[in-house]
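worker-03 picked up job from queue 'complexes'. Input manifest follows; two sequence lines, order preserved.
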Amino acid sequence: MDKFIIAVLVENKFGVLARVAGLFSARGFNIVSLAVGETEDPEVSRMTIVVEADERILEQVKKQLNKLIDVITVQDLTGGKYVDRELILIKVKAESAAVREKIVQVVDSTGAEIVDIGKKCLTVEEAGDEHKVKALIELLRSYGILEIVRTGKIAIQSK
Amino acid sequence: MAKLTGAEILIKSLCAEGVTHAFGYPGGTIIPLTDKLYNNKALTFHLTRHEQGAVHAADGYARATGKVGVCIATSGPGATNLVTGIATAHMDSIPLVAITGQVNSSLIGNDAFQEADMSGITRPITKHNYLVKDVKDLAQVVKEAFHIARTGRPGPVLIDLPVDVQLQKTEFKYPKTVNIRGYKPTYKGHVGQIKKIAKAIEKSKRPVIYAGGGIILSGAEKELTMFARKTGIPVTTTLMGLGGFPEDDSLSLGMLGMHGTAYANHAIQDSDLIIAVGARFDDRVTGRIDAFAPKAIVAHIDIDPASVSKNVRVDIPVIGDAKGVLKELNKFSKKGSKSAWLKTIAGWKKKIPLRYKNDGKLRPQYIIEQIHALTKGKNVIIATEVGQNQMWAAQFFTFTKPRTWLSSGGLGTMGYGFPAAIGAQIGKPDSIVFDIAGDGSIQMNIQELATAVIEKLPIKIAILNNGYLGMVRQWQELFYEKRYAYTVLAKKDLTACPDFVRLAESYGAKGMRIRKKTDVRKAIKDALKIKGPVVMDFIIEREENVFPMVPTGKSIDKMIHGLA
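worker-03 finished. Artifact:
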């Protein structure tokens, strides 16, 4: 099983997200993440879906998506040249001033930002590609991660 | 320009789409529409006695005529009663437009009286669905709905119409064209791929044509027949493809699969080239998939790209409409004959034909054969229910024309046959229409006897009455040590509960009971003379089984043959 990333252009209409999600659940396709938003054309939305599957199932995923009336195009970005980003917020334990200092230093070195400070925790924000995000999580794990919120990957083909 | 209500616009739009008959059942949120349908000269509304009857009737009408079937129901329970029929049409790719009333727009999402989220409920079983929120969108929605329903791989489309939208007014202008950017089916097959098939045929020694429901939907029976006869390749059809190739042709192998003929199954398993047209390698056909047709190159002509290489690896795919692709293929194919192969097949046909015990007892296979014999040469349509009745009808009737076989193949819906027969009779008033039923299935939409009687439809219902849920009982006999759990529908007296003859008469239909083999032909002849619906209660051998049978998990050449 591998991870594949597909970009789907859909009609910006009521119920389209439910259709796509319903298709995946009905056929047992595994969604790792799904991010959707309007494009430069307000009548068109773009979904970036990360699917965990084998090659054969991925073929079916693409074909079944294409069958949906509201789906305009399906693009398999996997293995090609693309730019991907994900926004992540990590709430990390910081129970003493000393620990807080340490975390601030670590975060500074990565280019991530501290966006919230609580009595016993800090919230770190990062927007980056898959590697950057993964690296930050690993870096902060030893301090004790309280909560993670991720947007899911978005991607755009690079020329 | 004068403004029309949503209800009036909907009816004018249906007429613009060529709809002349619709089936349905009224209710609170659809009254504005049914009010405008009342005494409409252009569009006849047929009242059934259950919404399920309406949707199956629209389906049967569509299968028999090739037109889009239309059914209408109210919101809530009326709409949810359509679900089984919509799923049935979806699985068999039947063009249908279902129109459901919906509660007032301001109440949607409020758990209102008779509210049901039909867009959500039917999402996985429709090709597409619409919730019309503004009457200004209605005409466009209808245009799109019919376009989607009848083009590409056909299927059901649902239009959910709130009651206030049916009453809103606007100007009516029916769109001349329709263009949906996310929906562009491929009709023309790739010429290079088609040539590859022609080449593969030349090289092959044991080819088989495997034709399915797509032949019927595409209207490709002439092209298929020409193709088979030109190349000399034998043809087997799926349950959905019956009638796509004349079964009285010497090249016909009959049906293949779980209850197909032994010779069709052996031919497929032994073939070196399978040309699949408008079929989808369903599990009832393939049996154990890793052992399916081990020596064959697979060519697959289909309009739905998702069906290609879904279950079986395809070597030569051609995406396109069956009729058009076969026409091209006929141009590139050479005249041929695979005489050694046909000889082998003839040997199988002789050694392992379809058979049943030919004694004095009343057996269902004999009934089907006599229905065929006594309607030969006439326009006859056979609708079936599901189970043993369906399999015997598929095996022992000889189909020669398309759109003469109406059966729920994909979903296997008991209760489908009788209302489908109603729809078919209305669509084809000059045809003789039979419903082959079991005593279990017929009870699922028995209320439609009222529809048949009041509309004066001369449908012949042949109940193969064995007092059991037959097909399940067969499985219990073969694999569950004869533990007939919940499959005994009648005890000793098969005519007690219900007495189908008296039940028919209570509705005003004619009923007859046949207990002896020697009475069968006369009963059928008498029934054919009656100008109204007839219920024929055939009391058949209780534990008759359908053979051959491919058990689960076995390849299709490992059939159980039973005793002849």
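worker-03 released lock.
The mean pLDDT of chain B is 97.
The longest strand of chain B covers residues 96-102.
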